[in-house]
Amino acid sequence: MQKLHIITVLISSFILLSCSSHISKSGISNTERFSMNFEGLTDGEIKEILGEPSYIDPIDNSYIYYSEVILKKNIFNNKVISRDIYLIKFDNNLFKEIIALNLDNNNELKISKNSTPNKIIKTGILEKIFGGVGKKRDLPGGIPTTGTP
Questions:
Q1: Is residue 86 within 8 Å of residue 64, measured between CB atoms?
Q2: How many CB atoms within 10 Å of residue 102?
Q3: Helix (H/G/I), strand (E/B), else coil: 34
Q4: What are phi and psi of 30, to 5 degrees?
Q5: How far apart are CA 127 and CA 82, in angstroms?
Q6: Where are the alpha helices (DSSP H) in 1-149?
Q7: Among 14, 57, 58, 63, who pairs with 53 as Cys (CB 3.0-4.6 Å)?
Q8: CB atoms within 10 A of CB 110
Q9: What is the Cα–Cα distance from 103 to 78, expressed in whole angstroms?
Q10: What span, in angstroms and rounded, lies between the C-alpha atoms of 77 and 133?
């Protein structure tokens, strides 16, 4: 009887807790700072104003700041309330432009269909692991692997 009472309390508390919702924030918290004029500022000065970026792209020479707010009800029901991505580009360490993306222009992003070739799948994983078993090869320097001197 005592076990039944404990199980009932656990199940009821689980159901009640799964019905409650909370807001989860990730990334930068203050997006109003991105509306200011950055003209003439260096990358270091912008980093002092905005803080550390979420990602620094060394190829494109740009900073990427990310912010997301999600309403979480349970593990099956999450809704993204807002998502903002700010891409700040530099030219010779001086501010060049800022590009702001959010949920409204989420569908404008084009996802590439290109993929990196995977030789493991092409040759097969077993062949990759056991491919050299039983094959005779000469060692570098012309030393034969079979026979006696």
A1: yes
A2: 13
A3: helix
A4: -110, 100
A5: 48
A6: 2-19, 43-50, 119-123, 125-130
A7: 63
A8: 6
A9: 15
A10: 51
> Half-sphere exposure (CA, 13 Å, Cβ side) for 19?
6
Which pTM was predicted? 0.57
CB distance 102 to 82 below 8 Å: yes
SS3 126: helix
pLDDT mean for each 10 residues of the chain (149 residues):
80 69 79 85 90 88 88 79 89 89 70 72 66 65 57
Confirm if 64 and 58 have CB atoms less than 8 A apart.
no
Torsion of CA 103, 108, 109, 110, to 10 degrees: 150
- Residue 18 phi, psi dihedral angles, 5° rounding: -75, -20
Q: List the structure tokens of 120.
A: 């493991």
The size of the chain, in residues, is 149
Supply the DSSP symbol for 104: G
Q: What are phi and psi of 128, to 5 degrees?
A: -65, -40
